[in-house]
Amino acid sequence: MPPVRPLRSILSVQTTLVLLIPFMVAAVGIAALLYPTIKKDIELHQKQIAITVASRIGSYLEDAKSTVLGIALLKTDGKPDWHNMQQIVDAQIAASESLGVIYALDTNGRVKAVGLKTGTERQRQDLLELDLSRNPLFSQLSGNNSVTWSDSFLSVVGGGLSVALAVSSEDKLAIGEVQIRRLSDFLGQIGELGNEEIFILDRRGNLVADDKGRYTAQQLNLSNLPLVSQGMKTSAIHTGAITLSGRDMVGCYVPIPGIGWSVLVAQPLDTAYRPLRTIMGGIGIGAIIALLIGITLSLRVAHKLAGRFEQLAMHARQITDGSMDVQWPDSSIAEITELTADLQQMADKIGEREQRLSTLMQNIPGMVYRCANDRDWTISFVSEGCLKLTGYEPADLIQSTRISYNDLVHVEDRERIWNEVQHALARREPFTLQYRIVTVTGEVKTVQEHGQGIFAPDGEIVALEGVITDISDQVRLEEQLRHSQKMESIGQLAGGVAHDFNNMLTAIIGSAEIIMMGLDEGHRLLKFADTITKAASKSAELVRKLLLFSRKAPHDMLPVDINQLLGETISMLERSIDKRIEIVTDITAPDAKIIGDAGQLDNAFLNMLLNARDAMPEGGTLRIATRHCHIDEFFARQIGFAVIPGEYIEVTIADTGTGMTPDVLEHIFEPFFTTKDVGKGTGLGLAAAYGTFKEHGGTIRVYSEPEQGSTFKVFLPLGTTAAPPIEAPEVPVAIPNNRTVLLADDEELLRQLGDTMLREMGLNVILACDGKEALEIFAEHCQEIDLVMLDVVMPVVSGRDAFRMMKEINPNIRVLFLSGYTRGNSVEDLMDDPSVIGFVQKPYRREDLAHALSRAFAGNQTES
Amino acid sequence: MHALRFFWFPCLAILGLAALSSSSGCKEKTPIPIGFIGGISGRVADLGVAGRNGAMLAVEERNAAGGINGRPVELLVHDDEQNPDTARKVIDELLAERVELIIGPMTSSIAMAIMPQINASKAILLSPTVTTNDLKAKDDNFLRVISTTTDYAAKSARYHFEKLGRRKVAAIYDAGNRSYTEGWYNDFRDTFVKMGGKIVKTVTFTSSNDATFLHEVKELLAAGPDVVLIISNSVDSALICQQIRKINTEVNIAMSEWASTERFIELGGKATDGVHVSQFLNRNDDSDRYQKFLSAYRKRFSQEPGFAGVAGYDAALVAIDAMGRRKPNASLKETILQTMKFQGVQQQITIDRFGDANRKTFVTRISRGKYETVE
């Protein structure tokens, strides 16, 4: 991604470039065209000056040379007259412009005559007879008529810088000192004409004169300058750059013929190229002015544009912050108007999507989240469902502001879910977790979480996302269902056992009674037969309780006032209860009428009260209360499946006794489960009560804490709409003799017992071992058979089926059903059939059977 | 500032253009300035020119080797014209240019003239050739790479008395450079008289472009000395020698080291033969360092360096060395005084805590136009 820069910056750079480039191109073009021309002009000009100066100096020195030459070559015939010579040199020096001193020497180098300028004559006495043989000039002269120039030196006469010219002849030597100072004056005149600097260099490269007189006397050696050393080497004209006293210059070197000197004309670079610099400066100033104007304009444009964009950005930010009602600014720029429209469209779409997303989020049960994969599960986003699920506001959880999500997780589940999530992330699979959370109110909820890791392209985990839902109800219902199913299956089992027991007990009781009937009064075995009968009857009572639990016991459903029933039960209990137990009653429900079996209910409540008493061996408080209660659907689901929403009476029996552990609580309604010592309890009391309340369309709930006591709540549906009880005629009717009874029972013992009892009652008996045989017999002897006694549960063809088929054979058939199950559970639907004249609950005594038969035959007589 | 953030490029462009149109650009690195003051014009400029050339050679060599810590050295040369007034003016100019060290001057009289200015400033004066006793053993801003006149004068006196058996001396000296010449004369006289010698005549003169000496020489010779002692510059000395020889070819001539330049022999001619000159330059030195220096000097200036060239070169070496080794916040004077020992062209120069140097001296005799070291 390229670097992001503000619009103002981009515009300013680009404007600058647009403005600058033409100037730069112009500058480079002008420089390229002008520079060579100017350079050439400079060189030409310098060369002209240098040549002019060289020529002028040449003639200046030539003048001196001719004077000295004239003196040296003066004919003296080998005997110079030094006195005469003195006069000659005096005359010559006076006439010469260039010479400062003229020496006439003998061949040994001793000064014999000295020509001095006016003002310096007093030095003559010192100079005469001077020995100049050690002067380099002397040794340089190679013979007669030779001419040689000296290096520059400081003259002893006047002290000025001079150069000496020596000419030898056969008898003498003439030396003339040329005054260099005069050259500087001359150069000054020329130098004034231009801005060039003019230097005269001697043959060693020493600067002997310059137009400004600045270096003249200092004997500065310039032979180290490349331009000078090159010129000295080749004795030719050279041009080029030099640096003198720290100044960069351009110069021209021209040699002066004869003497070996040279002229150097130089000009500082900045002066030489001033025209070019002036032009470039003009261009530069133009560029600066153009830039200033351009920048001002671009500043305005950029400010305006940036302002508009910033306005758009600000509005876009408002939309980001959730404000959808944004008034976009108007613009006269087509592109910005178009951009505004596009942004508005985008905002609309975003709003629409956000709305959809928001609705979706709200509709999702539970909370949607996004969190980091850390030990705190630090949350970055969480939906509104958070409040309902946890009791915390989303803001409390985001970034763990108030509490971290990990702290909400039940402490026993934290490690497990961490491991499960890490395991799933390692395999890059989604995860489903079930665990408990503790809400802000301390409530423990069971939740289910579906989530997955969000991975960056490089495989790194960026976050976790998912949804967490409350499944507490579901879990509770499942638990209730499971419990209910368990109780149901136990009930069926108990019912089955009870049925078989009843058959056996019927046989035992019946047989015992027959024995007793056959024994004389006072017979010693009569007591044993009575013991059998009593024991069997006690067993029958147990079986009845089992049947109550399995709701297969016979019952008489009549209007019952629970307040009244409870009052009677309590008053009965008060007599036998420990005085340390305080009974507190609040049996004040305004409407306590239900349809129920008062005996069963009484037994059930009594059992519960006795249990409560037993739970308080050291005494305590027993509270019994009733109240009206409305159960809605929600509450109905809470307390159990079988409860139908409606009006109920709630009976509360609470003790302050030993209480129960959850393990005990789970099993208390199961038959034969008891916490009492062996022999003290049957384990059927609460099971029977459970069955009784269920049978009455109600339910029982228990709350208990160890050492705190237990509270039982019984809910029974209110109502008085049950059919009034059919008052059976209690008048015993004599059983007519010689009537024929078809008895069908799959139990051999019962068949035999029945046969014995019926015959003893004076009846003719046909036995059938099952429904099928009974049907066949009935088909064959239907005219002879007055009554059919059918066991309800039989193999091959059940009692019910046999009844229906028999009725097809003879619609006037009369049937008495026998069963170990209750009537309600087996043949209740058939009881309205006119052919069904009764039901005998096993185990039955002879008395029960006689009673049923008498009613059956009584009806028969009435009809007949 | 806010606008500048967005408009840095145009602003830079304007600044760049402004800089381009106003100047030719900036120099690579600011040079380190070293001042030079000496008489480089006039009748006796040979001393000043050679001193300047020596210093210039040292600076050019150092710059060719990369300068001091990457910065070039610039020698700011000023001419005192052997005139105290000019010298004071020149020092003002150099101080205004904020130089920390000035090489020079070449003569004692100029040194005495400018010392008040130097001591009042933070700059130091490092002289190649000033030998006056007037500045000896003083904790001031004056330092030198040469011994005081006492060393030369005493040595010369002893030599003439003991080795050559001279007893009567007639002396002539330049009163224009009294600080040096008179000191020299006094030192010579003290030693010579102490040993038993006698000063038979003393004449002074003031050097000028039109000075004459025949009359003074006659006066000296009239006293009948064994030796004529000349304490003056090379040109004056040469002319005095010539005058002596016009009258007396026998009398011995002795000179101070001031005149011991090549110019003296050129101008003095055969009159210089046999003259004894004191000096610190060992002209017979064939060491590599000296020969290398000689060769470089000749190549650069097409001249002989003479003692002034060597002294100028040595002074510049000391200055550059000190500048190179100076620690932050240390002054140049402290650096030089703490360093003490510096390698010169011919010998190691030892500078004491007063800035005075200890340097060997030689007695030379001119023979056939050449200096020959005799002691």
Strand order, sheet with most strands of chain B = 7-6-8-9-10-14-15
Strand percentage of chain A: 15-25%
β-strand number of chain A:
27
Q: How far is it from the N-terminal to the C-terminal residue of chain A, by CA? A: 110 Å
Largest sheet data of chain B:
7 strands, mixed
State the share of residues found in helices of chain B, binned by percent: 40-55%
Strand content of chain B: 15-25%
Task: Summarize the structure in words.
In chain A, the strands form six sheets. Chain A has a five-stranded antiparallel beta sheet. A five-stranded antiparallel beta sheet of chain A has the order 7-6-10-9-8, sandwiched between helices. Chain A contains 25 helices and 27 strands. Chain A is of the alpha+beta class and 864 residues long. In chain A, helix 14 packs across helix 21 (748-760) and helix 22 (771-781) packs parallel to helix 23. Chain B is of the alpha/beta class. In chain B, the strands form three sheets. Chain B has a seven-stranded mixed beta sheet with strand order 7-6-8-9-10-14-15, with helices on both faces. In chain B, strands 2-1-3-4-5 form a five-stranded parallel beta sheet. Chain B has a three-stranded antiparallel beta sheet with strand order 11-12-13. In chain B, strand 3, helix 5 (108-120) and strand 4 form a beta-alpha-beta unit. In chain B, helix 4 (84-96) runs parallel beside helix 5 (108-120) and helix 12 (306-325) packs across helix 13 (332-339). At the A-B interface, helix 1 and helix 8 of A face helix 1, helix 2, helix 3, strand 2 and helix 9 of B.
Describe the secondary-structure layout.
The complex is a heterodimer of chains A (864) and B (375).
Chain A: H1 7-72, H2 82-95, E1 99-105, E2 111-116, H3 124-127, H4 136-140, E3 147-154, E4 161-168, E5 173-179, H5 181-191, E6 197-201, E7 207-210, H6 226-234, E8 238-244, E9 247-256, E10 261-268, H7 269-272, H8 274-320, H9 334-363, E11 367-371, E12 379-382, H10 385-390, H11 394-397, H12 405-408, H13 414-426, E13 431-438, E14 444-455, E15 461-470, H14 472-518, H15 526-549, E16 558-561, H16 562-574, E17 581-587, E18 593-596, H17 598-614, E19 620-631, H18 633-639, E20 646-655, H19 662-667, H20 685-695, E21 699-705, E22 709-717, E23 740-744, H21 748-760, E24 764-768, H22 771-781, E25 787-791, H23 799-809, E26 815-819, H24 823-826, E27 836-841, H25 846-863
Parallel strand pairs in A: 17-19, 23-24, 23-25, 25-26, 26-27
Antiparallel strand pairs in A: 1-2, 1-5, 3-4, 4-5, 6-7, 6-10, 8-9, 9-10, 11-12, 11-15, 13-14, 14-15, 16-18, 19-20, 20-22, 21-22
Helix pairs in contact in A: 1-8, 8-9, 14-15, 14-21, 15-20, 16-17, 17-20, 22-23
Chain B: H1 2-6, H2 8-22, E1 32-38, H3 45-64, E2 73-79, H4 84-96, E3 101-103, H5 108-120, E4 124-127, E5 142-144, H6 149-163, E6 168-174, H7 178-195, E7 198-205, H8 214-222, E8 227-231, H9 234-247, E9 252-255, H10 262-268, E10 276-279, H11 288-301, H12 306-325, H13 332-339, E11 341-343, E12 348-351, E13 357-358, E14 362-367, E15 370-373
Helix pairs in contact in B: 3-12, 4-5, 6-7, 8-9, 9-10, 12-13
